[in-house]
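Deliverable D2.4 — example input (structure tokens):
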């Protein structure tokens, strides 16, 4: 099998989808690896490291898309990559279809098989390929939120930790999953007063047991959300419904309850955002202000810390990639229902229920016998 590793073309995306060790593992099994020249530079990996591991360095990305049976990426293909997609090809990457109807139709029209990192499940029912980037994004949400609370960034002029004699910041985290718990750890470690809101009481009990005393867990409903918004200097949107659009928990009218210069970091923006006023931003232009509230809605937050994120991501994607090249994705899906959930689109058919429901498209489940 020929496996292609193109350079990421999304704005300010510095991750790469394969480490040199991945190229070594694949080539030792008799497969070919094509790596676009410069693909790893954003993560501090030079072409010679891939070449030493057995990969072929390719100057023209069209050759990678044209020859590869399987292409592995980090982010969804950008519009300029859509014409390069080839019918029958397999693309293994983050897609986040629910946030992008144009992308969904482009992939349907291309005839490729789209295996999405963010919906693939393991034997425990967790999302192993989403988890490491959620950990990075959760921790970054506090780092970025603290920066944009500074007055030169249009924030309130609040130091998250406070100082002796001055109260620390109030942080509200909507969602107690991987993103939310990592955000809470960092915010609490800095000394902020933290609230985590969630609708899963078992999860709240667990978080209440493991978090320090400056973290409070609350059941999430309209009243607790509004009250938390009124108190908060920093709000982190950390809600996930696997494969589907994020629910909008904060409405436009709710912003009037917030303090002027408060900051919202909507980590759920990859899935459409959980704040009504959220819209995708980039690392180059990360924020905007609505009703005196600063919004940070960068869609590829972990891309800013490319080296950390690349190693964290490739640690979990490589075992699945090896299974795909050894057995084929159809055999993997037939043997593992969690893997099958990662197959969102196959040859012009939507095979993931959440994606089909989001856009009102026909659902064609993978057939056990042929999947």
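Example output (designed residues):
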């Amino acid at each position: 099998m020929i496996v292609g590793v193109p350079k990421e073309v999304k704005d300010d995306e510095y991750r790469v989808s394969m480490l040199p060790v991945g190229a070594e593992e694949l080539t030792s099994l008799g497969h070919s690896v094509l790596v676009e020249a410069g693909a790893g530079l954003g993560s501090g990996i030079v072409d010679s490291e891939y070449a030493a591991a057995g990969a072929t360095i390719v100057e023209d990305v069209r050759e990678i898309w044209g020859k590869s049976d399987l292409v592995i990426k980090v982010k969804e293909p950008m519009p300029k990559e859509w014409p390069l997609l080839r019918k029958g090809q397999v693309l293994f990457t983050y897609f986040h279809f629910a946030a992008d109807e144009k992308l969904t139709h482009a992939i349907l029209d291309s005839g490729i098989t789209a295996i999405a990192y963010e919906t693939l499940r393991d034997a425990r029912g967790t999302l192993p390929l989403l988890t490491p980037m959620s950990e990075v994004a959760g921790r970054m949400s506090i780092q970025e939120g603290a920066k944009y609370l500074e007055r030169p960034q249009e924030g309130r002029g609040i130091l998250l930790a406070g100082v002796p004699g001055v109260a620390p910041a109030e942080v509200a985290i909507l969602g107690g999953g991987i993103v939310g718990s990592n955000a809470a750890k960092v915010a609490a470690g800095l000394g902020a007063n933290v609230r985590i809101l969630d609708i899963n009481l078992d999860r709240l009990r667990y978080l209440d047991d493991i978090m320090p005393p400056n973290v409070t867990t609350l059941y999430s409903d309209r009243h607790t959300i509004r009250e938390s918004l009124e108190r908060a200097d920093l709000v982190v949107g950390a809600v996930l419904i696997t494969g589907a659009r994020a629910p909008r928990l904060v409405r436009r009218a709710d912003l009037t309850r917030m303090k002027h210069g408060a900051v919202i970091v909507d980590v759920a923006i990859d899935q459409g955002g959980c704040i009504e006023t959220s819209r995708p931003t980039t690392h180059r232009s990360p924020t905007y202000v609505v009703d005196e509230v600063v919004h940070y809605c960068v869609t590829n937050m972990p891309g800013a810390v490319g080296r950390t994120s690349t190693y964290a991501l490739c640690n979990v994607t490589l075992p699945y990639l090896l299974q795909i090249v050894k057995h084929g994705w159809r055999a993997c899906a037939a043997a593992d229902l969690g893997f099958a959930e990662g197959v969102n689109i196959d040859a012009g058919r939507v095979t993931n229920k959440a994606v089909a429901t989001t856009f009102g498209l026909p659902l064609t489940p993978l057939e056990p016998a042929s999947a």
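The CA atoms of residues 260 and 292 lie 5 Å apart.
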